[in-house]
Amino acid sequence: MSVLEELVETGVGALALSFGVVAGVAVYSTGSVAAVVDVTARFVDAVALTVLPPTSLAAWPNAVAGLAGTGAAVSLEDSVSYRAAGFVATYLFLAVLLHYLFTPI
Question: What is the reported pTM?
């Protein structure tokens, strides 16, 4: 598998994990599966915010997630593909969750 395929696979996995977290919490807290509809719309908006330019004030979750991703990448082995995958997974997971929780969408 190429490095690009690994990064895409890692990114999709991170998005699936973050969606599972927010959908699971929403269903648990409301007691209804109907909450998934609202969660899905808000989740899509949060994913779109992960590509905000760094000059935007609403991009602070991206900066926090980027720093955490860098920390994760540095702590991994000396393989560039492992480090890149660690950064992508950490960045996407944290950026989406932070935007979902703290950005008024």
Answer: 0.82
Whole-number Å distance between alpha carbons of 34 and 26:
9
**Distance between CA 92 and CA 61 in Å, rounded?**
10
pLDDT digit string, tens, across residues 28-66: 999 999 999 989 999 999 998 888 776 777 788 888 999
Nearest to 67 by CA among 58, 59, 56, 77: 59
Contacts of 30 (CB under 8 A, 6+ apart): none
User: Angle, nearest 10°, between helix axes 80-102 and 60-75?
Assistant: 150
Say yes or no to pLDDT of 104 above 80.
no
Long-range contact list for 40-45, CB < 8 A, 24+ apart?
42/100, 42/105, 43/18, 43/19, 43/96, 43/100, 45/99, 45/105
